[in-house]
Amino acid sequence: MPTYFILQGVILMLQAYSTNIDIAANSAVPFNNVVLNKGCAEALSAPATIQLNKRGVYLVEFDGYALGDTAAGVVTFQLYVNGVAQPQAISSFTAVAVTSVYPVSFKTLV
Is 102 within 8 Å of 66 (Cβ atoms)? Predict the structure, then answer.
């Protein structure tokens, strides 16, 4: 589901994604593709950074699937804003098999 931003009565949206990527422990998730970018309030400024260029309240939604790794144990995805972990925007699972697929998602206002 795409993320929608509402700012001053205008609907703005940035949809970014990656497929089939390996992510090292304690690394940011890179977004390698931008499918839809409407408005100018947000931009993909680096592979793992979405920059919000206008003040306001934004709805951020993260949805994905992760492949389990038995060596990984607990796997966590968390939103950071200006380098600060957001405790309300976190998704974790305990990997039990290499072939298992786990849904990860969170939604929050920033």
Answer: yes
Instruction: Specify which residues 110 forms β-bridges with.
Output: none
pTM for this one? 0.76
Q: Which amino acid is at 24?
A: A
What domain count does the chain have? 1
Query: Token pair 């998704």 is at which residue?
Result: 91
Q: Is 25 left (phi over 0), alpha (psi -120 to 50) or beta?
A: beta
Please give the residue range of the domain that contains residue 71: 4-109
Q: Is the dihedral of CA 35, 39, 41, 46 positive or negative?
A: positive
Q: Is the pLDDT of residue 49 over 50?
A: yes
Cα 48 to Cα 71: distance, rounded to the nearest angstrom: 24
Mean pLDDT, all residues of the chain? 78
Neighbours of 43 (CB within 10 A): 16
